[in-house]
Amino acid sequence: MDPITELEKIIIELLLVISLVAIVVQYLRIPYTVALVAGGLILGFVEPLPVELTSELILAFFLPPLVFEAAFHMDFKELRENMRLLLMLAVPGVILTMLIVGYILTWTTALPLATALVFGALVSATDPVSVIALFRTLGVPKRLTALVEGESLLNDGTAIVVFSVVLGIALTGRFDVAESVVDFIKVVAGGVAVGSLVGWLGANLIARVDNHLIETTLTTVVAYGSYLIAEQFHFSGVLAVVTAGIINSSMGPRGMSPTTRIILSNFWEYAAFLANSLIFLLIGLQIRLPSLLESWQPILAAIGAVLVARVIVVYWLSNMHFVRKHEPIPPKWRHVMAWGGLRGAISLALALSLPAQLGIANRELLQVMAFGVVLFTLFVQGMTIGPLVRRLKINAVDAAREEYELRHARLVALQEAEKHLDTLYRKGLVTRYTWENLKPRFSRRTSELANSVRELLRAHPDLASQDLESARRELLRAQRSALMNLKIDGVISDPVYEQLVIEIDTQLHETSLPDLLDDSSEQPPHEIVSAD
After folding, report:
1. Tell me, what DSSP letter sits at residue 7?
2. 350 within 8 A of 122, measured Cβ to Cβ
3. Measured between alpha carbons, how far is 49 from 40 in angstroms, rounded to an integer?
4. What is the pTM of this model?
5. pLDDT band for position 192 (50/70/90)?
6. Could you give the CA distance from residue 327 to residue 81 in angstroms, rounded to a whole number?
7. 480 close to 486: Cβ distance less than 8 angstroms
8. What is the CATH number of domain 3-175+273-392?
9. Which of 161, 167, 163, 160 is nearest to 114 (CA)?
10. Of 33, 119, 213, 526, which has the fewest beta carbons less than 10 angstroms from its beta carbon?
11. Mean pLDDT of all residues in the chain?
């Protein structure tokens, strides 16, 4: 088999595994990233794939779409309002984590201080992908989600910079405080400057183009181009992508049509899903459990050091006076932020990039410890963060919403059962006696449930508005689908299709509810929604 065909076969196999895992996760209700790593571990035993996870693959190929997508969809208002705490966690927090982890490991393992600090730097970046997905499912307050996601966005870049500085010190044995600080500032400021320039140029080009394919392509150029240009000048590529993504998020959409915004959002959502899925699947394929078991003692020491550092960083920095005064954090949120500090792709990329000059034994030990820490945070912390959020009762899903969903689901189930009974009767599969006996019972119970749903919606108009908005958007999507069928069948031309789709997409992006009924209708939203 030639190399191109072999590569195509591997890609198809990986995509198939990703799809199957995603389907299974919907039934098992476990974090998707955890399932992918588990799938990779199993696949590594059953049929190992000739795929090697390298730092270049993670940092240069997978990371830009992940970082850009997160930055592009980040709420800029939330980011700005929580900037003090986020900067504290992303800069002093990363340095403090490195120092705490490094010094604990020198006391608990045979690692020299310089090498232990290198490990502390490579595990200082958080990767809360599965946590954020769980937060959205549980209805966690938007600000808490923004804090966890914003910290990860900002500390990715600073962790890589700190790692590079500390690694240089470990390899040369020379430490100059002033030089290290200057290098740090240069790399960070350079990355932000490159990202600002590329992001600004990209946003202005997008504003002058009215073609969703070209605009999507330009954002791809911005994401990868900002990273590559920054790295070319030895600046922080990750911070460049973060900055470019935030600038495009705040400037770009103003020059985009509604159709482009939808297509662009879908494209980057898929790109991030694919990159993230491949990373965690390849992590599972890369890990060798026997080597982890052989080094269980230093791995346990590393896990303990990381947990201690995370607790100190979150509780101390979030409780500092100037942070507490301007951006107070509820105590319960600190528990979630501390336990939700998972490690992932960045830590593994940095571990895999360790040079042989560090010493073969030290290099292999740090890599095994990094894999052990990542596995622990994914499988233990990732699996228990949901129960912790529920126990602390900080999810925003209120009792009224849950009660509405229960009543609505029971009503729909009964209506379907009543329809099925009528079908059975028409086909002669039940007798008239049985139908006459059961039909009134179902009708009476359906009527009672419909009334209870109506009463609940009258008591909570916000639920009625949400339900109406959901129905409105679903009807607009149905219209969009019908237009696509008309275009495919040749009933309407491309220009007509584009014009009508833009009209529908504009309505999809509206936050206020337009009048969907006749002007003569004076029914309030909750009356419309609860109609039988």
Report:
1. H
2. yes
3. 10
4. 0.75
5. very high
6. 8
7. no
8. 1.20.1530.20
9. 167
10. 213
11. 84
